[in-house]
Amino acid sequence: MKRYATAVWQGTGKEGKGHLSTQSTTLDKTQYSFSSRFESGVGTNPEELVAAAHAGCFTMKLSFVLNAAGFTADNIETRCDITLQDGSITESHLSVKATVPGISNEQFDAAVADA
């Protein structure tokens, strides 16, 4: 399987602007800029998208691990905090909350560690 996304940028790094699109068109010329990346401007940014991808991938994997252990989650919510420092991602921290009927804390912790 292959998936793709495209980024288009026009102008300088600080004053320029860009947009991102994905194969599925979930993102379709979604704007990003210096302001949306390093300040609080309107639009998305690469780190936010990496955080969404990491949280989404982990949450789905956790669901598979729970299913393999005989459990079905009513709800799994994962937050991913990405740290960008000196132009590099230095940390990706996941926090997960879930409602899983019949599972013990130890079983849940083991499933999280496996995922």
Describe this structure in words.
The model has no long low-confidence stretch (mean pLDDT 96). This protein has a three-stranded antiparallel beta sheet. The protein has a two-stranded antiparallel ribbon with strand order 4-5. β4 and β5 form a beta hairpin. 33% of the residues lie in helices and 34% in strands.
Tally the beta strands: 5
Low-confidence stretches: none
The profile of the biggest β sheet is: 3 strands, antiparallel
In sequence order, what are the helices and strands, one letter per element?
EEEHHEEH
User: Approximately how much beta-strand content do the residues carry?
Assistant: 25-35%
- Strand order, biggest sheet? 1-2-3
Query: Radius of gyration over alpha carbons?
Result: 18 Å
Q: What would you call the quaternary organization?
A: single chain
Question: What structural class do you assign from the helix and strand content?
Answer: alpha+beta
Number of helices: 3
* C-alpha end-to-end distance: 21 Å
Helix content: 25-40%
Mean pLDDT: 96
Query: In one word, what is the shape?
Result: elongated
Write the topology of this structure:
Blueprint: E1 5-10, E2 17-22, E3 30-33, H1 34-38, H2 46-68, E4 75-85, E5 88-99, H3 105-114
Antiparallel strand pairs: 1-2, 2-3, 4-5
Structure in a nutshell:
By secondary structure, the protein is of the alpha+beta class. Helices cover about 35% and strands about 35% of the residues. It is elongated, with a radius of gyration of 18 Å.
